[in-house]
Design brief:
- InterPro entries: NusB-like_sf, NusB_fam, NusB_RsmB_TIM44.
- It holds the Pfam family NusB.
- This protein is mostly helical.
- The chain has 7 helices and no strands.
- It has one domain: N-utilizing Substance Protein B Homolog, Chain A (Orthogonal Bundle).
- α1 packs across α5, α3 packs across α5 and α5 packs parallel to α7.
Amino acid sequence: MGSRREGRELALQALYSFDLNPMELRQSLVLFWEHNRAAPTVRDFAEQLVIGVAEHRDEIDRIIEEKSKNWSLGRMARIDLNILRIAVYELHYRSDIPKNVTINEAIEVAKKFGTEESAAFINGIIDEVASNVPDK
């Protein structure tokens, strides 16, 4: 597995943990890293994603809700929602990650951590979001 995939998976786990146990973000990350080990580059990338999603969460959630017809954020599985948040963050705020990489990575992470329907669900929403984002 590539270091960025590992970083995305750890970011997903950290965001999920933060959803279940809301606290100050830095404190949440300290606790998360006490129980999860990663190479410095993986950890750095994961933290960039977590902090980026947290800083832009309201805007990211608005974009997701806008593109997810018939699904409110409250009805979405927490894992699926956090995979979407990471992908939307990458699409809108990370010029160093190509669109197709973000889409493919979101689908692969969904296959590993989500339900049987997660990958298709995420693919549908991310395709909608990506269609409004210029190529990098």
